[in-house]
C-alpha cells in the first residue's frame, strides 16, 4: 500500500470515528415548536430546556447545530429526524 493510499484510508477512518461532524437542523414552515422540541429530546438526548433553545435558534436564525459526534452516532439520529419530517443534514 502506498503512502497516499494509507493517508486516504486514515482520512476515511477519521471521518467515520472522529468527532468532527454535526447535525444541522433547518427551519421549516410546517412543524410545530412542540413537535421539534419532542423530537430533539427523544432523538438527540436534549434536555427540555436545550431542545427549546435550539428550536428558538432555528426559528429566528434559520438553522442550528443540534448534535455533534461521529458519523456512526449521527447517521441513525439523522434518519429518525428526517422520518419525523424535520429538515436536517450532517456536515
Give an overview in words.
With 91 residues, the protein is of the alpha+beta class. The protein has one domain: Ribosomal protein L7/L12, C-terminal domain/Adaptor protein ClpS (Ribosomal Protein L30, Chain: A, 2-Layer Sandwich), CATH 3.30.1390.10. The protein contains 4 helices and 3 strands; from the N terminus they run H-E-H-H-E-H-E. A 3-stranded antiparallel β-sheet has the order 2-1-3. It is globular. It starts with a helix and ends with a strand. The mean pLDDT is 88.
Q: What's the pLDDT, averaged over the residues?
A: 88
Q: Kindly estimate the percentage of residues that lie in beta strands according to DSSP.
A: 15-25%
Query: Which second-level CATH architecture applies?
Result: 2-Layer Sandwich
**Major β-sheet, in short?**
3 strands, antiparallel
Helix content: 55-70%
From the alpha carbons, calculate the radius of gyration and give it in angstroms: 16 Å
> What is the 3D shape?
globular
Strand arrangement, largest sheet? 2-1-3
CATH class: Alpha Beta
The low-confidence parts are none
**CATH topology description:** Ribosomal Protein L30, Chain: A
Distance between the termini: 30 Å
- What number of domains? 1
Order of helices and strands: HEHHEHE
Q: Specify the number of helices.
A: 4
Amino acid at each position: 500500500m502506498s503512502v497516499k493510499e494509507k493517508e486516504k484510508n486514515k482520512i476515511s477512518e477519521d471521518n467515520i470515528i472522529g468527532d468532527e461532524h454535526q447535525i444541522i437542523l433547518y427551519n421549516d414552515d410546517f412543524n410545530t415548536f412542540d413537535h421539534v422540541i419532542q423530537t430533539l429530546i427523544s432523538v438527540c438526548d436534549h434536555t427540555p430546556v436545550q431542545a427549546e433553545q435550539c428550536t428558538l435558534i432555528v426559528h429566528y436564525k434559520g438553522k442550528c447545530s443540534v448534535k455533534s459526534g461521529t458519523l456512526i452516532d449521527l447517521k441513525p439520529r439523522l434518519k429518525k429526524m428526517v422520518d419525523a419530517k424535520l429538515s436536517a443534514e450532517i456536515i
